[in-house]
Amino acid sequence: MDAKKLGLVFFPAFDWAISPVHPEREERLLYTRDQIVEEGLLDMPSIQEYKPSMAKISDLERVHIGVPDIGSLITNAHLVSAGGVMAAADAVMRGEVQRAFALTRPPGHHAMRIVHGTRGFCTINNEAIMVEYLRKVYGVGKVAIVDTDVHHGDGTQDIFYHDAETLFISFHQDGHTLYPGTGFTDELGSPQALGTTLNIPLPPGTTDEGLHTVLDHLVMPVLADFKPDIIINSAGQDNHYSDPLANMKITAQGYARLADKLQADIAVLEGGYSIETALPYVNVGIILAMAGMDYSKVIEPDINTCPAQPAAVTRAINNIIVEQQNMWGKREKLRREATAKAGDFWHSRRNIFYDEQGINEQQTETVRLCPKCAGYLLIATEAHGSGFGYKSAYAAVISRGACPHCRSAAVDAVHKVKKQGKYQHYLVQNKYEDKLEKL
Ligand SMILES: [Zn+2]
Ligand SMILES: [Zn+2]
Hints:
With about 450 residues, the protein is α/β, with parallel strands linked by helices. The protein folds into 2 domains: about 5-330, Histone deacetylase domain (Arginase, Chain A); about 345-439, no CATH class. The chain has helices at about 25-40, 55-60, 75-95, 125-140, 155-160, 210-225, 250-260, 280-290, 310-330, 330-340, 405-420; strands at about 5-10, 45-50, 65, 95-105, 115, 145, 165-175, 195-200, 230-235, 265-270, 345-355, 360-370, 375-385, 390-400, 425-430, 435-439. The strands form 3 sheets. Strands 2-1-4-10-9-6-7-8 form an 8-stranded parallel sheet, sandwiched between helices. A 6-stranded mixed sheet has the order 11-12-13-14-15-16, covered by helices on one side. It is globular and about 65 Å long. Bound molecules: zinc ion (2 copies). One zinc ion binds near residues 375, 403 and 406.
């Protein structure tokens, strides 16, 4: 039997909400589900529904280093949401469907590698967990993640910032005007992965016109160059013109045409908070496009309230496209220069804010730039907050293909810091052996 066109996974997480009136609540998916049933989409021969499975803690630990451990920071809903995304990936990899769309919550793209709590409604990163699962179970190599949520996917960027095998492209409303305040054009990845993080900060007021100019002239050509084995879409829908949390002007047609162009293997729902006026239309549009069906009739009843794109916005978008086209064109040269300049180690120091719990984290990353392998990463983290207290950890991340010298040097570095006793927890995320160890 031929593979069906599209697999769908739903998980509305009835028992998980930040608070009953919070914009991230179960109604986000219930209205969509109603619309999909009403349109008869689940009875279509080309669409197959899948039940979510439950992710294991070991699936999470391939990506996250929880302080003190990831299991104590999450609920079962998080395991089902991540498991739903993994079930979508399984359906595609087994060849049962050509592509899949996981509509699950809680969302994930603001969750970083180190986790002290919840940021931007996210505690664990569903897409990153799926990527490492795909690599572990199916041997997938190069992956592209295209994040189309209105907020910068800062968690996904953080997790893959040093990974040249993962291309992360995010377009979003400019961080000067919206949470989380990052995602600028100079965030390009650390030296050996330079260029495989590509941010496209768009001005408020960007419409379908601007979005599709970006897709045609930047995103699609970069994807064609990178040649990923798998394309993942972090499908946030809060770029919609009616979304209450942001200021962009994308329509359901704009999103459906995006899905049609991108031809993502797996789409994963992220944000989208215009529960009744946008989400059902945008999701139905994406589903029809991914299933290869006609989406031209999916139009919001109040579409005439969506304004045209101002000329200044068009000019700003064109400038960003040219800037990032230039960067992409000379990325090999930039990579060589940045690696030579950094020497043996690359350092970065950041403050990370957890908006839900008022936690302030100070984090230092040190990347070993090894000429023989993808090296290792050392992370020092200290987090403070009233009602949270103080938590700290020192961790090493050993890359998948690490050379023998890097494997032992990473562990030695953690032992050495442990002797000084400054931190509460000492951890090694060993991607080479697929395990997380406490020292
Ligand atoms: Zn969002
Ligand atoms: Zn090495």
